[in-house]
Amino acid sequence: MSSEQDNAGSSIAAILAAVSAEMSIAAEACGKLDDALGQILAVSPPESRNQVMQELHTVDLLAQHITAVTDFTHRLALIASTDDALEVDEALSAITLGAVAERLRASLAAAKAA
Q1: How many domains, the chain?
Q2: Which domain of life, per UniProt (predicted)?
């Protein structure tokens, strides 16, 4: 059985938990971006600091957005049905970043095996 077939009919709770975990990875990456911009700000000439500050603000808003969606999907996963299932193969196939699709597939397969 292929990994795509293994994920057919994944529980809604497992899907939400997998999405929440993936969003946590995105939040960590956003934090690293924020740190990098902070380092750039520290060495930026005074005339360009305002622009870097604006970019830091944008990254901060993005981090807040990602964290909000992460928390929301995590809480939904805690209350979602483990009996109801969705076919996820087509949705997983639409993900263009291979590492994301593979992590989601692995998470869903692990949830089914548990």
Answers
A1: 1
A2: Bacteria
